[in-house]
């Protein structure tokens, strides 16, 4: 039987909890199906349907009243009733975080969709796309779980292009007559593709929607995989760089995917779900090297040709990735629901904490930037610092394992993969860590552990000089970097940046943030290649340690401001 339920809003202010009253009707196939639009009207809006998304096939919600409950001491002169007016006393209904456009005219027999970009369309051509209102209704969890899983698949294959190729990149460069400098360029070329495409794809996701953006990028990635498979046949280092650039362009969707997750999650849970997404990304380039190691082990020294196709330890990895791209394209075309970002309406009155936050954000710093812009820039530099450090290990890891520990590329890839699994577990546990630690504390702690793991390699000498370095040292160092330090510290940076951006359109800014990380993966690998070639690889570790130490000092000095802006 129908019932009334008091449901919470996610208003971004933890001192107050605002609620709305929903009229809910159970259904056999969905216990939380909500009342159709034609069945209820808003107070003060006679004859206007109150339903904002949903149908018998797709749940929506119906707000017929509101209240506010005070969780802490009221500001002087203020009241809950003033800060949270009822529906018929404010022009800003629905809530500011809703994307419902009040200028659209609803049909009495139709439904108004929210994130589908078709609000107010002809009801004769109805579609019942899932509404983002489900996260508004619960103020917890995800608004679109199937969409989130498909987004995870896109992120996974994007970084699998980096991970699966990790064990074979150095042998391939040697096969083509290159050295560590060419290795740095080859690794950096992938990120170069990302950096030139990330802002454009972020902007496209706002203008054209997520679905079209992701389909286009995944198609480009498929082309890059097919090109990489022909590198050995072409026998050109320049062709290797070009195929890496195409792969980078196709996988330049980190900003798009993070913006999507930021939009379908409540602010208080954003770091948790960003951590889930980062766990998938991290697993893509740290766990999947085991596939590259497997191809190297099984097909080492072997080659098979079928027409214009060649199958060896290098091309098999590319064909494998191509198959995954095709599968992801099928999911995007058949199951992914298109969503368009629309600008939320302004709030009628800001809380005192929001006013304090705006006052801090608008201050001018000594470099003539607002504190808000300076905070965004600082988070991007933190992204450069952490991404660059892991990028250097991605470049030199196999070479370092060979020269200083006598390990084969397959075994080195296996060690990185196992510690990558530990890193994924660390990321999945960040929701629990978030109960006890702030983003700032996780950033400082994660970077510190990563820095200690890196500097532990600095005193080592190579096997050619008679050194007998214990393999357990390599395992422990990689554990501190890949298993604990980088995944926790870097993911906390991503979560902090998303919170500082707040409710502004995140697509473009997340694109710039991803481009900053890609820039680091260009500069640091190339720098590492030159240093290792002309000096010694252990010098690279000293440079990386100093870089991370400076980053931690910046975070500690800016912790109060960053915390204020991220609440």
Short description:
The chain has 567 residues and is mostly helical. It has two domains: 139 residues, no CATH class; 416 residues, MFS general substrate transporter like domains (Growth Hormone, Chain: A). Helices cover 59% and strands 5% of the residues.
Q: Within the CATH hierarchy, at the fold level, what is the topology of the largest domain?
A: Growth Hormone, Chain: A
Terminal residue distance: 40 Å
* Biggest sheet layout: 3 strands, antiparallel
Number of helices: 21
User: How many beta-strand runs?
Assistant: 5
Instruction: State the share of residues found in helices, binned by percent.
Output: 55-70%
**Strand order in the largest sheet:** 1-2-3
CATH architectural category of the largest domain = Up-down Bundle
H/E series: EEEHHHHHHHHHHHEEHHHHHHHHHH
Please, how many domains?
2
The fourth-level CATH homologous superfamily of the largest domain is: MFS general substrate transporter like domains
CATH class term of the largest domain: Mainly Alpha
Percent in strands? 5-15%
What is the alpha-carbon Rg in Å?
Answer: 26 Å
Residue runs with pLDDT of under 50 for 5 or more positions: 10-18, 28-139
Average pLDDT reading: 74
The backbone outline, from C-alpha atoms, is globular
Briefly note the structural class of the backbone.
mainly alpha
Plain-language structure description:
The chain crosses the membrane at residues 182-201, 213-232, 238-261, 273-298, 318-339, 360-385, 405-428, 440-460, 472-497, 509-531, 537-557. Keywords: Membrane, Transmembrane, Transmembrane helix, Transport. Residues 88-101 have a biased composition (Polar residues). It is a multi-pass membrane protein. Residues 147-563 form the Major facilitator superfamily (MFS) profile domain. The protein is mainly α and 567 residues long. It folds into two domains: 1-139, no CATH class; 145-344 and 351-566, Up-down Bundle (Growth Hormone, Chain: A), CATH 1.20.1250. The protein contains 21 helices and five strands. Strands 1-2-3 form a three-stranded antiparallel β-sheet. The chain has a two-stranded antiparallel sheet with strand order 4-5. The radius of gyration is 26 Å and the shape is globular. The chain starts with a strand and ends with a helix. 50% of the residues are buried. Mean pLDDT is 74; it is low at 10-18 and 28-139.
